[in-house]
Amino acid sequence: MTNMTHKKIIEITKKIADRSQASRTDYLDMIEEAQTAHSAKGLSAGNVAHATAACPVADKKSMIAGDWAHLAIVTAYNDMLSAHQPYERYPNLIRGFAREFNATTQVAGGVPAMCDGVTQGQTGMELSLFSRDVIAMSTVVALSHNTFDAAIYLGICDKIVPGLLMGALQFGHLPSIFIPSGPMPSGLPNEEKSRVRKAYARGEASREELLETEMKSYHSAGTCTFYGTANSNQMLMEIMGLHVPGAAFVPPETDIRDALTREAVKQLVENAQKTQTKNRIADIVNEKSIVNAMIGLLATGGSTNHTIHLPAIARAAGIHINWDDFDELSQIVPLICKIYPNGKADINQFHAAGGMSYVIRTLLDNGYLHEDVKTVLGDGLEAFVSEPVLKNNEIEWRTGPATSGDANIISDARTPFSKNGGLRALSGNLGRGIVKISAVKQEHYLITAPAHVFYDQNDVVAAFENGELEKDVMIILLGQGPKSNGMPELHKLTPPLSALLEKGFNVGLVTDGRMSGASGAVPAAIQITPEASDNGFLGLVKDGDMICLDCNNATLTNLTDDFTSREIKSTDKTKTSYKTMGRNLFSTFRETVSGAETGGSIFFEDM
Questions:
Q1: Which of 121, 172, 351, 468 could form a disulfide with 463 if both were Cys (CB 3.0 to 4.6 A apart)?
Q2: 110-127 confidence digits (pLDDT tens)
Q3: Beta carbons within 8 Å of 303's beta carbon, 6+ residues apart
Q4: Can you list the positions of beta strands (E) in 41-144?
Q5: Residue 385, SS3?
Q6: Which keywords describe this protein according to UniProt (predicted)?
Q7: What are phi and psi of 237, to 5 degrees?
């Protein structure tokens, strides 16, 4: 690559490494101890008999002899998630590929996989963030048998990939690879879907029209085609070197998709047999690859959920990052992608325009990534500017495009859509939070409006439908943080707030909840911490308080004179009844979970 890494990126990476020195050392010591234990294995005859009992005879002989690599499959398959439905056939597919390369496989375990699209606006969404930590624990249980030489992870969607990766890092001594299944074919354009949703919110479209629109948008197996958390996950796995190059956005049920899966198995078997190399996941996920992940998120305008997930993933590897790191990087990393909701294109159009190979190329060429990282292929990120082509049913790698196939979708990093990454870390007398501005128009960067306090997103929708919000207003939605109700996503708010914005009102949202990658054009200060139910200052806001959300200066302020003299009082309004949908079983999570900036996790304490 032509350019050295940007000086400021090097400085930020060093700051993270210095901050993380003790915890990263402890993590790597743990991995070395696990490596030693794994090398000894020490399985008894009974252990081996149980592990191989159901295996085909040929596999059993190879597993007992120990002369073939043995691969674990940890799968998030279910056939309700469109993105995960293709995984039904993957274990048998992988098993056949593994035998080609003198390896055996077993499904070590399954992890839960819930769909935020199904649960949005429902009480089940209150388990969504917590499911990530459950997935991490399930991954650890799956690998606890200590019989495997490497691991394959099958997962795509919102909390699933972060959870798998957090669990995988506890077995960081194992070579590992993530295998995606790809996005569904393009359906109804996302802009048309958004138009009908807003029309329905205004009472100008029927429920039948809304349902028809949604069915045309989400219509087959594969990942949803907008650039939300699921597709942001796939971008991250590729830019971190945990996929084979070009795997992220190839459609399911195609010859090249299967060939890429075969290539992934081949690479993993090779890594598992290189006992003297450091192609372990603990070495791939380090300070530089975490910084590359944050840069990829900013440069592509990815999901704000990763300002929660990446800190948790990093902490699982002994690395401490915070929202100031995101903010500092955002000031220098250019926004080079326009993918819905930050543009008109869907993920398939992004892939056709050059996709990840061109994104990585232009970021590397202009000094915005660390090239000297380890990946599943070995040393260096440069291999990921290649793209796969299918020749005689085999994958061949060719150099990816040197220019964008559509400059309206992916720009050169020298001529970006914006000179910054479109994400700011807010601070002020209401706490700390995140605002995503990549889809917000410049004239909405500064909003000052009177507060209207709510405790339930359904009440916001009802107030909109009753005409109570036909004015300049700052919606303050409390009791949506991890300690209060598990931090559900608040997608229900996007259509009505967008409709108010289009009517010309100054409207913004301030909440201790999440909005993710579909937050859109309304300025939204989200993930405010400390949250209201944790004695956060947000709980002091009263109806009519003047609130200033300043995206230019990254501040969030209650301008009311007596605000700072108010006494924080706990209120039952930020607490919910947890007697249905299994939420009662997650009381320990709500009591012990960390704040959003440290990952919203039960595993890590607030810094």
A1: 468
A2: 999 998 888 888 888 899
A3: 227, 228, 229, 232, 297, 516, 517
A4: 69-75, 103-110
A5: helix
A6: 4Fe-4S, Carbohydrate metabolism, Gluconate utilization, Iron, Iron-sulfur, Lyase, Metal-binding, Oxidoreductase
A7: -60, -35
Question: What's the gap between Cα 210 and its chain centre?
Answer: 28
Question: Burial level of 252, CB count in 10 A (0-12/13-18/19+)?
Answer: buried
Q: Going by C-beta distance under 8 Å and a sequence separation of 6 or more, which residues neighbour residue 582?
A: 127
d(CA 486, CA 505): 31
Residue whose token pair is 């819905």: 340
Q: Any idea which fold 423-576 has?
A: Glucose Oxidase; domain 1 (3.50.30)
562-607: per-residue pLDDT in tens?
A: 898 887 765 556 555 677 888 999 999 999 999 999 999 999 987 6
- The amino acid occupying position 176 is S
Greatest mean pLDDT among 330-344, 354-368, 485-499 lies in: 354-368
In tens, the pLDDT along 460-485 reads 999 999 999 999 999 999 999 999 99
CATH class for the region spanning 19-185+220-287+299-318: alpha beta
Q: State the residue for tokens 């919102």.
A: 158
Q: What pLDDT, on a 0 to 100 scale, did the predictor assign at position 192?
A: 80
Name the strand (E) or helix (H) holding 511: strand 507-511
| Averaged pLDDT score across all residues of the chain | 91
pLDDT in the model for residue 108: 97
Q: What DSSP assignment string belongs to 439-479?
A: TS-GGGSEEEEEEEEES-HHHHHHHHHTTTT-SSEEEEE-S
The Cα 556–Cα 535 span in angstroms is: 17
| Collapsed DSSP state (helix, strand, coil) of residue 214 | helix
Domain boundaries defined on the chain: 19-185+220-287+299-318, 423-576
The Cα–Cα gap between 539 and 532 comes to 5
Residue length of the chain: 607
Please report which helix (H) or strand (E) contains residue 169, including its range: none
DSSP 481: S
Q: What percent of the chain has pLDDT over 70?
A: 95
**Digit-coded pLDDT (tens) for 281-321:** 999 999 999 999 999 999 999 999 999 999 999 999 999 99
Q: Same topology for domains 19-185+220-287+299-318 and 423-576, yes or no?
A: no
> Amino acid letter at 106?
Q
Interior/surface letters 234-250, b for 16+ CB within 10 angstroms, e for the rest:
bbbbbbbbbbbbbbbbb
DSSP strands (E only) in 361-422:
374-375, 378-379, 386-391, 394-399
Mean pLDDT is lowest, of 2-11, 43-52, 224-233, for 43-52
Q: 283's torsion region: left (phi>0), alpha (psi -120 to 50) or beta?
A: alpha
Whose tokens are 């199904």? That residue is 118
Let me know: does 155 contact 267? Beta carbons within 8 Å: no
How far is C-alpha 298 from the geometric centre of its chain's CA atoms?
12
Query: From CA 597, how far away is CA 527, in angstroms rounded?
Result: 8
Q: How many H-runs (helices) and E-runs (strands) does the chain carry?
A: 22, 16
Tokens found for residue 150: 């490497």
Report pLDDT digits (tens) over 251-287: 999 999 999 999 999 999 999 986 555 689 999 999 9
| Spatial CB neighbours of 67, under 8 Å, sequence gap ≥ 6 | none
Dihedral sign from CA coordinates of 224, 518, 16, 292: positive
Find where tokens 């061949």 sit.
396
CB 69 within 8 A of CB 150: yes
Q: What is the pLDDT of residue 569?
A: 63
Q: What b/e string do you get for 541-563 counting C-beta neighbours within 10 Å, with b at 16 or more? A: beeebebbbbbeebbbbbebeeb
Residue 114 DSSP symbol: -
